């Protein structure tokens, strides 16, 4: 059975995962530049080795209060729709290899903003991981 | 043909460059026949013919051969240069261009018809009976050699020393044997006109690929000493790397200022210097003279002026001025449009010119020069000029400006309306300038690259179109400012001046709630950056700065909390997700490593327009509600006279000696017009203050007519309600009110104006200013 690798992270206690193929790197960063008038989900801009990266606050995408941005926030930097974009998350987890066979569609109980961002679920040990649709998660329009 | 690919590519590049030169040369030739020019043109065509023969492009060869035949007759003086011969030669150049384009696209000549062109050229050969019909033998060696060098060195002056003989190269590569080469050389000496490579090929002594390689090597060698061709992508990536380096340098320099270690400080300074030089050097590699664009323009002008029966001479000043190649590309279309427009609409027909006392031939001057970190490119014609009043009327007619707004605008601002979308002063739409590619597109294109457009025109004397272009796109001079806790960057090109507002000598005032600043007497609309960015607006108007900006032909001020410094920043494109906000032009990384947003000045300008519009709406509302208005309080003798502020367009000082008399009225010359003066002191029967060197005047403008009310001084701008004023039975006074514990009289503006210019309202209708307060042009 084919396996796929997922980079995992937590937002508000929920475990999410993105296909590692999309992930450029993971890092903590504390200096963000606010973008007035930008969509609410934009946490700010930061300088990644000379590249200007927009950070999308996953908490806002999930209908939660935004990150306070007053300290280091974890970034999962992805390639979505041909540009690098960062997802601001609460906590970084491990990279896990998962059987495609254990993939299941999102449960009916999953509702709200998260439903639109999730492709499906995987069972990992004693908890569920929600596989994120990268383009949808990074979409701030 | 694949193995020839590289040679064909090189041939194409060089031929295109040569053709651009050719257009210019031919037009110059028509003006002033010169043997040198003819020789140069002949060589260019000869080169293309030779190479195309070698590369087996038959049509190209036949066409250039015809051209060459005509040119050689012109060069040798067998027949004179006439407009018809030039037209035929230009047509030939166009045909060559079409063939080259086809070759570039599909590696084949395609089915571009050339017979007509060949006939047209041959028809010009005076002795048309025997036009040399058959193509001469392939002239490959000379051809490629010349084409290669002629790009950078004068054509026909190849550096012979640097070129190794073809035979030697062929022998070295093992593609031919010594004896064959010697035999071929002997044939040449014996009168065989074919080139060495051609002889060897014809006799089967070598193979085409080897000759190509040898020719290429020869070509490269001969140019290598002076120049090399570099892939633009490579230059772009070097440019990006240098951008990064500049950034790191800035960060290091900032960090090093705090460092105690003298070695670090010294090393940083050195790095600073080297980086600057490297940056300059890399930027230079991308620079090309603007002549590259201009070369095409005499041809454009010639074709157009022939079509319209006009006589236009093209003059160029500063053709050597260099611009970044990407900018050059971006400027091409706007510049061509301006030139077309100048020939079409600017320069008059010879008859009109003579009637106006000008020479029958108009002059179109292209001018380029460096100025404070920018390049200015001007297209100047000595034509009819633009009638600012026509522009004003048209802008209103087209709904670009509200009538009241137009009436209040200064000529300069009015003139900028020609760049508004949907504006065209052309009385009739011609197929040249009225094709949707309008001045608004020129403006958009230039502003897209961080430049600015401007127009200056004197009726009857001509027009100057001015493009201000940054030297490069990637690195800009920027002013860093703070608004609240955030730092932003404003492109320096738009910044005119900075004003510190201390709240005492300099302060922000409000017209119907919209902030304004009196900059040397003129009301400058202000945008609060914090408010424009949707942040809570600061409440304290003291200790802030006004950055005076210009864009969209509008001068306005942006209120910021702090001004830091100017630095060179590297422009980073902003992700498309912020495009809709429309207030950011990009992002950059500052010396401290933080990202800062670059503000889009034209977008801010539109916001200042918005606030101006809002204040006008407020005026209207204020009038209908009849509640309050702002008053300009002036001193006239010992009395205080108030004028509604929104009727005021400018506050001016005139030199006393500038005042002249027309009949029994005083006037001054003002912005090219006659401005009637009315002294409020005499109107109101007040004893005036003793005359000084200058007089203070409140300029009132409505529908293009202006008048100046002379006062002894400007005291204040205040908010006043209309309810508390007492009726006063006095000529020219509507009533009085108490402002700042002093009785202040309210001027009957209408009466004052009629006293100075009884015709003032003759054309503007009676309904204006029937009410007293708040009824300014905004309400008309």
UniProtKB/TrEMBL annotation, chain A:
It holds the Pfam family CheW. InterPro entries: CheW (IPR039315), CheW-like_dom_sf (IPR036061), CheW-lke_dom (IPR002545). GO terms for biological process: chemotaxis; signal transduction. Residues 3-141 form the CheW-like domain. It comes from the Bacteria. One of its GO terms (cellular component) is cytosol. This is CheW-like domain-containing protein. It comes from Pilimelia terevasa.
Automatic annotation (TrEMBL), chain B:
Its main location: membrane. The modification Phosphohistidine is found at residue 46. InterPro entries: Bact_Chemotaxis_CheA, CheA-like_dim, CheA-like_homodim_sf, CheW-like_dom_sf, CheW-lke_dom, HATPase_C_sf, HATPase_dom, His_kinase_dom. Its EC number is 2.7.13.3. Keywords: Kinase, Phosphoprotein, Transferase, Two-component regulatory system. PROSITE patterns: CHEW, HIS_KIN, HPT. SUPFAM superfamilies: ATPase domain of HSP90 chaperone/DNA topoisomerase II/histidine kinase, CheW-like, Histidine-containing phosphotransfer domain, HPT domain, Homodimeric domain of signal transducing histidine kinase. It catalyses: ATP + protein L-histidine = ADP + protein N-phospho-L-histidine. The keyword Transmembrane helix does not apply. It is an enzyme of class 2 (transferase). It comes from the Bacteria. Residues 1-103 form the HPt domain. The keyword Kinase applies. Residues 475-610, 628-758 form the CheW-like domain. Residues 229-473 form the Histidine kinase domain. SMART domains: CheW, H-kinase_dim, HATPase_c, HPT. PANTHER family: CHEMOTAXIS PROTEIN CHEA, SENSOR HISTIDINE KINASE CHEA. This is histidine kinase.
């Amino acid at each position: 059975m084919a396996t796929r690798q997922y980079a995992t992270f937590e937002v508000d206690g929920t475990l999410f995962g993105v296909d590692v193929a999309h992930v450029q790197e993971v890092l903590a960063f504390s200096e963000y530049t606010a973008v007035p008038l930008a969509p609410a989900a934009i946490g700010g801009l930061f300088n990644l080795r000379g590249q200007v990266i927009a950070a999308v606050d996953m908490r806002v995408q999930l209908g939660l209060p935004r990150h306070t941005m007053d300290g280091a926030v974890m970034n999962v930097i992805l390639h979505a729709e041909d540009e690098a974009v960062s997802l601001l998350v609460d906590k970084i987890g491990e990279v896990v290899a998962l059987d495609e066979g254990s993939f299941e569609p999102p449960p009916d109980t999953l509702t709200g903003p998260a439903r639109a961002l999730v492709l499906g679920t995987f069972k990992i040990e004693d908890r569920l991981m929600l596989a994120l649709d990268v383009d949808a998660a990074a979409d701030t329009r | 043909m694949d193995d020839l690919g590289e040679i064909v590519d090189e041939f194409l590049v060089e031929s295109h460059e040569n053709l651009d030169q050719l257009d210019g040369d031919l037009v110059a030739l028509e003006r002033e026949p010169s043997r040198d020019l003819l020789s140069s043109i002949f060589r260019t065509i000869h080169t293309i013919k030779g190479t195309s023969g070698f590369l087996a492009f038959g049509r190209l060869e036949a066409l250039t051969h015809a051209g060459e035949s005509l040119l050689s007759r012109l060069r040798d003086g067998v027949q004179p240069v006439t407009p018809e011969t030039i037209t035929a030669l230009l047509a030939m150049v166009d045909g060559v261009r079409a063939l080259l384009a086809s070759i570039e696209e599909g590696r084949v000549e395609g089915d571009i018809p050339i017979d007509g062109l060949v006939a047209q050229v041959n028809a010009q050969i005076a002795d048309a009976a025997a036009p040399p019909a058959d193509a001469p033998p392939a002239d490959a060696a000379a051809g490629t050699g010349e084409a290669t060098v002629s790009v950078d060195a004068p054509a026909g002056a190849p550096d012979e020393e640097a070129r190794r003989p073809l035979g030697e190269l062929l022998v070295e590569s093992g593609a031919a044997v010594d004896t064959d080469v010697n035999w071929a050389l002997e044939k040449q000496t014996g009168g065989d006109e074919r080139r060495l490579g051609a002889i060897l090929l014809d006799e089967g002594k070598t193979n085409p690929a080897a000759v190509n390689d040898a020719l290429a090597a020869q070509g490269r060698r001969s140019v290598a000493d002076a120049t090399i061709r570099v892939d633009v992508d490579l230059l772009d990536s070097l440019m990006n790397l240098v951008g990064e380096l500049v950034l790191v340098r800035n960060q290091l320099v900032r960090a090093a200022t705090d460092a105690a270690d003298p070695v670090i400080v010294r090393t940083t300074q050195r790095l600073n210097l080297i980086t600057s030089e490297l940056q300059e050097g890399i930027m230079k590699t991308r620079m090309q003279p603007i002549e590259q664009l201009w070369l095409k323009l005499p041809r454009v002008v010639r074709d157009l002026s022939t079509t319209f029966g006009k006589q236009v001479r093209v003059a160029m000043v500063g053709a050597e001025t260099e611009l970044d190649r990407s900018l050059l590309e971006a400027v091409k279309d706007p510049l061509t449009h301006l030139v077309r427009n100048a020939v079409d609409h600017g320069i008059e027909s010879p008859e009109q010119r003579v009637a106006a006392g000008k020479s029958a031939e108009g002059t179109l001057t292209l001018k380029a020069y460096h100025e404070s970190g920018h390049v200015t490119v001007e297209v100047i014609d000595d034509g009819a000029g633009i009638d600012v009043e026509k522009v004003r009327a048209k802008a209103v007619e087209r709904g670009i400006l509200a009538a009241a707004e137009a009436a209040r605008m200064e000529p300069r601002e009015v003139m900028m309306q020609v760049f508004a979308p949907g504006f065209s002063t052309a009385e009739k739409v011609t197929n040249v300038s009225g094709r949707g590619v309008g001045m608004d597109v020129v403006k958009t294109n230039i502003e897209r690259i961080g430049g600015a457009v401007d127009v200056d025109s004197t009726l009857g004397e001509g027009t100057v179109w001015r493009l201000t272009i940054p030297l490069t796109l990637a690195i800009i001079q920027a002013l860093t400012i703070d608004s609240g806790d955030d730092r932003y960057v404003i492109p320096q090109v738009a910044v005119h001046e900075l004003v510190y507002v201390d709240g005492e000598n300099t302060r922000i005032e409000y017209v119907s709630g919209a902030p304004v600043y009196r900059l040397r007497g003129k009301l400058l609309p202000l945008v609060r950056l914090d408010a424009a960015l949707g942040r809570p607006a600061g409440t304290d108007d003291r200790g802030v700065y006004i950055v005076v900006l210009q864009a969209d032909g509008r001068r306005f001020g942006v209120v910021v909390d702090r001004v830091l410094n100017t630095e060179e920043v590297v422009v980073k494109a902003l992700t498309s997700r912020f495009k809709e906000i429309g207030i950011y032009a990009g992002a950059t990384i500052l010396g401290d490593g933080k990202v800062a947003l670059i503000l889009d000045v034209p977008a801010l300008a539109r916001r200042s327009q918005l606030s101006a519009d809002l204040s006008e709406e407020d005026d209207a509302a204020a009038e209908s509600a009849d509640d309050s208005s702002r008053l300009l309080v002036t001193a006239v003798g010992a009395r205080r006279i108030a004028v509604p502020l929104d009727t005021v367009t400018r506050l001016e000082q005139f030199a006393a000696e500038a005042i002249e008399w027309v009949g029994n009225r005083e006037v001054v010359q003002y912005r090219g017009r006659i401005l009637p003066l009315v002294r409020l002191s005499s109107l109101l029967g007040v004893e005036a203050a003793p005359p000084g060197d200058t007089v203070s005047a409140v300029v009132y403008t409505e529908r293009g007519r202006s008048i100046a009310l002379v006062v002894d001084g400007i005291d204040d701008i205040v908010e006043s309600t209309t309810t508390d004023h007492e009726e006063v039975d006095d000529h020219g006074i509507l009533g009085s009110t108490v402002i700042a514990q002093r009785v202040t009289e309210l001027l009957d503006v209408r009466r004052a104006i009629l006293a100075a210019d009884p015709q003032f309202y003759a054309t503007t209708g009676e309904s204006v200013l029937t009410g007293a307060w708040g009824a300014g042009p905004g309400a008309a």
